[in-house]
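Notes taken during the Thursday session

The instructor put the following on the board and asked us to keep it in front of us for the whole hour. The protein is FecR family protein. We were told not to look anything up and to reason only from what is written here. First, the residues (394 in total):
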Amino acid sequence: MSERLRYLFHQYFNKTETPAERDELMRLINEPGSEALVHGLMEEVYKSHQFEEDPFPAGSREKMLEAALANDTLSYADTDIIPIKKRLTPLIYAAAALLILALSFGVYQYRAQKSGEDLAADKIHQDVKPGGNKAILTLANGTKIELNGAEKGKLVQQGNTAVVKLANGSLAYVPGSSAAGAPVINTMSTPRGGQYNLQLPDGTVVMLNAESSISYPTAFTGKSRNVTITGEAYFEVAKNKKMPFIVSFGDQKVEVLGTHFDIRTYQEQPYKTTLLEGSVKISTGNEKQLLVPGQQAVYNANAKKFDVKTVDTEDIVAWKNGLFLFDNTDLDDVMLELARWYNVEVIYKGPKPTLNFTGEVKKSNNLSRAFKILESTGGVKFTINGNTVTVEKK
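Then, after some discussion, the predicted structure tokens were revealed:
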């Protein structure tokens, strides 16, 4: 068993395992006498990387594994989160947080799946499926096209530009060879539980997160390329030094020549602009700020200035890669993310738990699976009833 378990363990650690291999790994971990070998594999991988400091409290790695193997709710000594003392590189994050979190949660989920427990026993009355590729395209004349239900191919002609639904499901604007009327404004909007990809007339690629919108011309003319957004959008802007690309949101603007960046403008949270590559200039009123890759600008309304910090950009754009990635994220923000994606209403029963979460959850999970992962950290429980989620302290 030892060599097979070692192979499956490294497959899982490197995220190259098949579903069948993942199930086999969880089965082997649960077999009597596997604890020592699993501990050894954890230490082997952990020590193979040069950690500057242990990101977990003393003894907590053993407690987490033992809790997982014992099928108990995971507990983390005197805290309700898995504390990361300093931001880790993606590789070390995988070696530490994913090694413990994913492995422990994997065992927890595997056993929950195999035990055949009734969801009602977990106070879940009804499950909720994840969101998907959904959006509405509103043309200049007010006509609305539901994109997820539209056929592939040309949808409509807007002046000199053909609006096409591509084979991969995204929407593209394909300019014609000659002028045919002035550009008009189109708007793409995603509902709660939706996201969508868009290719603008200049080749710029945009991905809209749930409950977001972007308004843009069907052809870019003049001295700049101007679009307006709400919610959250990730941009890969086509380079054009003669025509800056300008994104407006609220009273802020981001100006670029060609770069990759993410803008989050949900009303419930501070506006954030994060740069992945290239450079951007963000402004509001007389306040201006230049960003370099890896920086995030958060507008401080009280101080009327931008607070700039270095962030892990992979965390910021995890949403477009199919993940919720929480890094010491408080419960309110976690529930806002989940509510948008699963299109549910969240209510709190009794005192609101003051918890933070660290770890990742696949956006392809049903809501009950996401909640099982969150509940396994201790201190909170969730009840799903139709499209309403009740959150209460455990």
